[in-house]
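pasting for the record
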Amino acid sequence: MIGHTGSGKSTLVQHLNGLLRPTSGQVLLEGRDIWAEPKKIRDVRFQVGMVFQYPEHQLFEDTTYKDIAFGPKNMGLSEDEIDARVRRAAAFVGLKEELLDKSPFELSGRGEAPGRHCGGHGRGTRGAHPRRAHGGPRSAWAGHDPRTDWRL
């Protein structure tokens, strides 16, 4: 999704994943109003996620492995399933397995990692944040550059 600053991109995505409740109208997911059962709004967030372009807008773990595992862990998956998803996501975005123990901020984006979307500040790197590639939510992206998000 692209648009000018202040055009409502983030607000729209926050409505799509239930962080904001509309004052009128409905937000439909697979044809169902996500607010029909407010106690189940957390389930919506397993289907619609959001990631911002800049790492300053996110919280990062101390290792890339833990950072990628954040979503699956919060979904209550088993340790084996979390590990499988982390490794699958890393492979999907081209992150070498030996870099999983590094801090996301140590990844350069020069063949090592998927660039600034993974906490590194590589320039011109094409890739996607592996936290979004773990097979979790059908992602809603806010603030991403489509020229660098081609993998997802």
